[in-house]
Structures are given as C-alpha cells and as structure tokens.
Amino acid sequence: MTARRVSRIGIVGAGQLGRMLALAGYPLGLRCCFLDRSADSPGAQVAPSLIGELEDGALLEELAARSDVLTFDWENISGAALAPLARLTTIRPPAAALTVSQDRLHEKALFKRLRIPVAAHAAVDTRGQLLRAVQRLGLPGVLKTRRMGYDGKGQFTLADRAAIDAAWSALGGQALIYEKFQAFSRELSMVGARSPGGETVFYPLSDNRHRDGILRHSLAPYADARLERSARRHLKRVLEALDYVGVLAIEFFVVGRRLVANEMAPRVHNSGHWTIEGCVTSQFENHLRAICGLPLGSTRALGHAAMINFIGEMPDRARLLGVEGLAYHDYGKQPRAGRKLGHCTIVRKRAADRNRAFSDTLEMMGRTD
Amino acid sequence: MTARRVSRIGIVGAGQLGRMLALAGYPLGLRCCFLDRSADSPGAQVAPSLIGELEDGALLEELAARSDVLTFDWENISGAALAPLARLTTIRPPAAALTVSQDRLHEKALFKRLRIPVAAHAAVDTRGQLLRAVQRLGLPGVLKTRRMGYDGKGQFTLADRAAIDAAWSALGGQALIYEKFQAFSRELSMVGARSPGGETVFYPLSDNRHRDGILRHSLAPYADARLERSARRHLKRVLEALDYVGVLAIEFFVVGRRLVANEMAPRVHNSGHWTIEGCVTSQFENHLRAICGLPLGSTRALGHAAMINFIGEMPDRARLLGVEGLAYHDYGKQPRAGRKLGHCTIVRKRAADRNRAFSDTLEMMGRTD
C-alpha cells in the first residue's frame, strides 16, 4: 500500500474526532468518507457520509470498497463486523487493537503482560463475585462495565459495603470489572503514533482534569522527565505488542511517584486536542500520516497549552475570540447536558502566562473546573 | 447583523482560497456554501456548492438567501450582478471595493487619491494612445489589460519600440493600461483586515518572488521597520477609504528605498498563505472573523516562514513530509501547466534555519526558483 498514493480514507463513526481527522486530511490531499447514524453528525458536516448503523455489514463493505485505508472515530466496532472488510481494504489500527481495548479486562491483561502497572482488579459476572472481589481487594473501589463505557458512563463508585446493592442493581447482569480505587494525585495521558514501518513518535505528557467522568481540561506539556520516560516506555510497549499503526493514547493515574495505567484508546484522544495549535504536527495529522504510510510529523510542543472542553453548552463565541491567541473549535453538535460540544486552546510561551490566560478564560466562561 | 450569531457564509468562487476559508470556518462554527462552475472544485470538495456560472443571477440569489454573509474567492464579479443581492444578505467586502479592484486604472486612481505612490501610467484604448503613452512615459514598459488579469495573464512587456506591434496585436481591442516599467529590487506585500467597527490588524510584510507573473514563493516576515510602517499606512488608508470589511492585500514594488503600489486584492492572498502556520491567526480565519463581526485575531508571527507554491505539478508528498515541520497543502486540483496546485510552508525560530530548510526543500523539489 505504501507504493501507491493513498488518498481515500474511510472513517467508522463521524463524531468530533472524525471531523477533526477529515479537516486535517484535506491539506494532505486525503478525502475522508464516514459511516454514521446521523446525516448531520460533526463529521458529515465536513465530508461525505454513508448513513446507517455503524455495524451494518453492507454499509461497512461499501465504505471499505471506497477507501484505501479504513480507520475509526468509534473504536467499539466488533471483530465480527470488521473481519469481512480485511479483503476489501487496509484496516488501521489493526482489528486486534480495537478488540483488546473494547474490554477493560482484556486491556488490563495486556498491560500486565507488558509489565505496565494497573490497579488491582477482578472480573465480576455475578453478585457473589462482586462480594468476593470487594472482600479480597477492599474498599473503596469502582465497579465498571467491561465494555462500551465512555465519559464516566457505566461506572459506579463503591465507598463502603452499603453501596454494593446499589452498584449491583445499577450495573449487574452484564460483564463487569471491580477495580480497587486509586488514590491518585493526578491524571496524565500520553498520545503517540506508530507507522507501518515501526517508526514511533510521542507527544509530551498531558495533565488532565475530569469531573463526573468527563474530561474538563488539559494542561500540557506536563513537565516531569521521569514520568514522561515511564509513560513513553509503556506506550511504546503497547504499540509494538499490537503491531499498531496510527495514534494511540493511554490514560494514567499518578499514584505516589508511579504511573498506573487506567485505560487506552486506539485512536486520537480528547487529551491530545491541544496538539492542533500546541505542537508542530497535530495528533490528527499524525494519525493520518501513520495510517497512510507517510513519514510521521514532529511532536515538538510550540509552547505551553491549555485545552478547555465545552460541555453541555457553547460559550459566548465573540467573547472568547477576544482572548489573545485563543483557538476555538465548534463541533457542530446540538447542545445536551454532559455532551462535548467543542473546545478551545490557548498557547503561551511561558507556563505562568498560560496559567493566567487559562484562569481568566475559565472565569469568562463562568466555570470553576 | 452583529447581534445575531452568524453561521452561514456564502462564497462566490470555490478555488483554493475559498477552500481554505471553508476549512478555517468549520472550527469557528461557520458553514460555507460555494457557487462555482465545477462540481469538483477545490472548495466543493470540502463544503456544499451550487454549480453554475459565477454571475448567474438566480444562483447568486439562492446563495445570498442561504447566507448570513456573502464573500468572495473570485473578486471579478460585476457590480450589476452584485446589486440585487444587497437586499438578501450582507456583502463583505463591500461591492465598491470589488469594483475598484477590477480595473487597474481605477485602482491606480484610488492609490493616487490616497497619496500612495504608483508607477507612471496611461489609459490605452487605441493604437494611437499606445504610441503616445510610450512616447510620453518611455520604455521599457508593460501593457496590461485593465480587467481580469491574474498570474501574469493579460500582460505584455515592451522592451523597445519594435515590440509595440506585437503588444498591440496580443492585447489590442480591449481597455488597456500602459505602465512605465519599475526597476524594483524586491516585491513585497502586506495583508491586513478590518472589522465592521473599524478595528484593523496587519500581518508582517511578505517578500515575494514571481516568475512568468506567477508567485513562486514568499519569505516572511520581511524585516524592514521603515517599509513596514509605510506599507501599513498605505493599506490602512485603502481599508478606511473603502469602509472595507475583511482581508485586503496590496502588492508593492520596492523602488530605491520607496514602496510603489502595484495592485491590490480585495480578498485573502497567496502571499498570505504562510500565515496558516506562521502566525497566531491565519488570514483565512481573520477574513471570516472580520466579515462575521467577530473580534480580529492576533497577527503575530510565530517564527520565520517560507511558503513555496506547487505550480503545474505536485511534488513527492511522502518526501516533502519528511522535512521537519513542513506543512503541506494540496488544493485537490487537476495538474495543468502554470496552475497553482498547492503549497507548503516551513516555519523556523531563526531566519538562518528557515533559509537553510527553504533551499533544501527547493532542491528536493528540483527547483531553482
């Protein structure tokens, strides 16, 4: 595939990640086509889209047939739906990477196999297993669905034994995992990319704040050389173990002086949005370069960045654009509580100036984060 | 118009300028629609497009009716075609600015009225007027069509009297202008923007090299504080005289130590493409901000930039993307001799590093420029 000129990218799912991929693709001469349920999805507003279910076999085949490479905005597509597509096009990242990341238990098993620290955990399929897991691992802990969780959905925190019944009635009946709660001081993430030839690049660490399971903002680069080396080593092991092609992100907890891997995403990641203005090459462009077999771009930071997610409602655009050097990103979505509708990024030469502009902007938005 | 939220932009013409406007618009929550003859124009590949002649009254009305603001990739639309649209939408830049820039004689008259130096020139409608103009202004000189010239088209250089017949047979029969040749040391341009409220911003000077009338490359910022002040003063006068809204560019010759205005463009300009990566806010985003009544963005340069046009053929994409920090821009056009198909931009902290990367890249492309 590297011999001929790749120009058509198929993307399963047309959310904001797909939208930003398509926008990064045009200047490279890449034309994306989506598959998504909605005709007015963030992606469909900027590129052609097939409309239908994301696992519709006929539509997936049509998308694959139209594409030199098939990639993903939404990583939860089943291995069964992907399998027939491999003879029609090149699938990147590889199906095995999607499959393992779809199940928190398999993901943790991979991390463990690669000697990447994870929280103590246990599979939970029955109420009895939950009781035994709590007994063995202790409290507090978090009960999570193994599959399809995102933005804090499908999670239940257990502070004490009294919460067990509520947790079970909320989530019981599907494949679950119980994890010992991590008393973390920080949540960091690392985004990197790998090319078909095995070239890898890594972005600086990002320092992320969540509330109610939803990313509120990221500050980057997070300057801790030791943790950065550690995160790179972990990410590199995962990229190589999976013979991965494209961008992959791992979220870590900082527990004491150590990184504990929380989860991975086999795609561009919200905590990497700051790279659009904050780095020489964005995560979106590098994902496309990787899956097209093009040389990977520099991940050097251009300054100190703050990325703020717009959640549930859009801010006053005219007011925000008055902030010096603020880059505004509207995903074209209908407002809904808890929904990520857009983000903005501020880049400054000095961290202190970034911090000031960041607090001023939060205040302007009426947020405390 | 500033009270309600502008979101729909109509663009007459869907070339690369329109394409880059549409791509800059999406993150701002702006959705562009084009009018263009071709269904596969650079713009139509990235946003919806009405297909037809650019002066088709019914299509222009449809475009205007769909748009909160109407703007231009192609500035040669006639005043007569524009007039009926004013009751349907807001036209920015104003029709008067388009009209004056469509005629080299009127443009020069405006420059003169604003005390902006121009080459000595004379209107030429007949062969007799051409002879008298050559007699009065001397040789060498350039005979140009007053209207519709671009990329060196519609121009004929007269080195001596023997060239008069050839010039007249090439261009005679339409409204012409004869200009005394300027023995210039450099060609510089300045791009700036003005908001509806009269706020203005100016980009750093760009140092441009043409061959056969086509821009080959730009290096920016061109550091000459005195010329920069002079160029800003000239551009500001034009913006204010026209009550202009949007981005406007003026190309200057440097003659001795003085700027002589060559021509203006009431739109984003090829010599401003470096601002996409080279400045905090690109000329495309600032044009959109201006016409939507949003605050203008910072025009601060982020380093030293080199922009190289791809003319007639596209370079080896994979090879070029191997250059550290090179930003690649493919316009999605069919190759044709003399056609602008794309460009690339390199930004470096130091001018010397930029110069080295610039020559290396030209060499890689097999160009001497």
Q: What structural class do the secondary elements of chain A suggest?
A: alpha+beta
Question: Roughly what percent helix of chain A?
Answer: 25-40%
Number of domains of chain A: 3
Radius of gyration of chain A: 20 Å
SSE pattern of chain A, N- to C-terminal: EHEEHEHEHHEHEEHEEEEEHEEHHEHEEH
Poorly predicted residue ranges of chain A: none
CATH topology of the largest domain in chain A: D-amino Acid Aminotransferase, Chain A, domain 1
- Chain pair with largest interface: A-B, 34 and 34 residues
Total count of strands of chain A: 18
Total helical elements of chain A: 12
CATH class of the largest domain in chain A: Alpha Beta
Average residue-wise pLDDT of chain A? 96
Q: Let me know the CATH homologous superfamily of the largest domain in chain A.
A: ATP-grasp fold, B domain
Quaternary form: homodimer
